[in-house]
Specification:
The chain is of the alpha/beta class. The chain folds into four domains: 171 residues, 3-Layer(aba) Sandwich (Rossmann fold), CATH 3.40.50; 69 residues, no CATH class; 234 residues, no CATH class; 72 residues, Ribosomal protein S10 (Alpha-Beta Plaits, 2-Layer Sandwich). It has 17 helices and 25 strands. A hairpin with a 2-residue loop joins strand 20 and strand 21. The relative contact order is 0.09. About 4% of the residues have low confidence.
Amino acid sequence: MEIDKAIRESDDRRLKTKYDNSIYVIRRALALYSIEEVAFSFNGGKDSTVLLHLLRAGYFLHQAEQIHSNGDLKDREFTFPIRTIYFERSSAFPEIKSFTYETASIYGLQLDTICLDFKSGLEALLEAKPIRAIFLGVRIGDPTAVGQEQFSPSSPGWPSFMRVNPILDWSYRDVWAFLLTCKVPYCSLYDQGYTSIGSIHDTVPNALLCINDSNNNKEKFKPAYLLTDGRLERAGRRKKYTPVSGRFPAVSNGLRNVDVHENGMLTASIIAVGDEILFGSIENQLGPSLCRKLSSIGWTVSQIAVVRNDIDSVAEEVERRKSANNLVFIYGGLGPLHSDVTVAGVAKAFGVRLAPDEELEEYLRHLIGDKCTGDRKEMAQLPEGISELLHHEKLPVPLVFIYGGLGPLHSDVTVAGVAKAFGVRLAPDEELEEYLRHLIGDKCTGNRKEMAQLPEGISELLHHEKLPVPLIKCQNVIILTATNVTELDRQWDCLIELTRSSDLIILAEPFVSKHLRTTLSDVETAQPLSKLCLEFPDLYIGCYRESRYGPLVITVKGKDQARVKAATESLCNKFNPGAFYEIK
């Protein structure tokens, strides 16, 4: 059973625990009631989608136990017999309706469509069918969840039935962890910034996921699974904003009117490719430097990862990060060596092959000339169909934000890893090969064409007059060739210059921060800091000690200077004067 298998193979211990608990509730219900006596309320939302697949897994495991097959029941023998009820409303989003019916078709659901209100529909259903228990996708925090437990009799005045709530204790994070881990379809509205879907009259995308598109002044939204604070899941349940104003009304978390252009969060991940970093042979200096550069243009770095010089390692990391971030920066593992697997890894992550790139091959030709005994075309391959070279006169080689593992060595596997991550092959790139020819001339005994390969169909060369070799861009993944901070500074400057003439990277408002130092103990500050986080959910509030018994440093960071100032003043007012002093 694919759902159970996906969870068992996951390394998310929290998700496994939630899954096991929910499956237990489902199997208990199936032991207490016959199939004819249970039903499942499905509305096409994320919660009921999770419940659908939990029920599929739970029924499969229940059947396996019933026939004493020790879970060996074949998927082809498995059908989903639980009656599914759908309350169709005229105010529902068309996307919700179509997803509901498509899902019913895909999984063979016995769908009973009810056009009455919930209470009247239940009364009619329970009169016609012997249903005694209904599985519901209710979670704590939902308006209807108050006072409910996993097994809760219906409320007075309603038809008599048992409410079964397998995901009652699931969080917003748990829901998305399940959907993404199991790779099951969900309604397309969630990829458009909707985090909680009601009717067309009271639901809009969540303003906290908004990204400004400077080209046409139109708001775009990140997917729902990128909402970092699940408490703000229902922030989109309000009246629609007026398109003329371009602003959303205030969300219900105490914020002032949210200007989506200022408060939209842009996130990036950084991937370093290099066994030498993991062995501790060298220090990863580029990661922290890149974090500072991204922060300076208003971006948030969600994660820094270091992976081995291995195509699969690169591909797996790129695949995880490319869907969860606006941009992925990857460096290392570029070149002709056996360990230079970055580009191949990116191609694999995107599901494309590496294909020859004439432009890159030409760069390699100028870079390395005839010194390579291999074929430049093998070095000038890019992920097919998703790559572009970023040119700048200061850069001798094109980039793709990832560092480490770039070159001709056996361990330079970054490009191959990128190709694998995109699911494309490495293919020769003539432009990159020409760069390599000029760069390395006749010093390479290999073939430059082996170095000039890029992920097929996804690669783009980005030119800049200061770069000897253009940068390489594979959709939202940029590979960096920098090996030290000086080289990174040069490549970053070129990238920012390119951005000013294109929409390559959104330059957002920089963060504003204040740092306070205090000798107060952790016990004294813990509760006030927790309350401060609730009072200012739009700000990052963190703290650390430079030594175990040294002073505590508190950082308040956000896009709104007035909010940052208000938060620091609020904290100081909770203690005696002089308890905190600001540091630069």
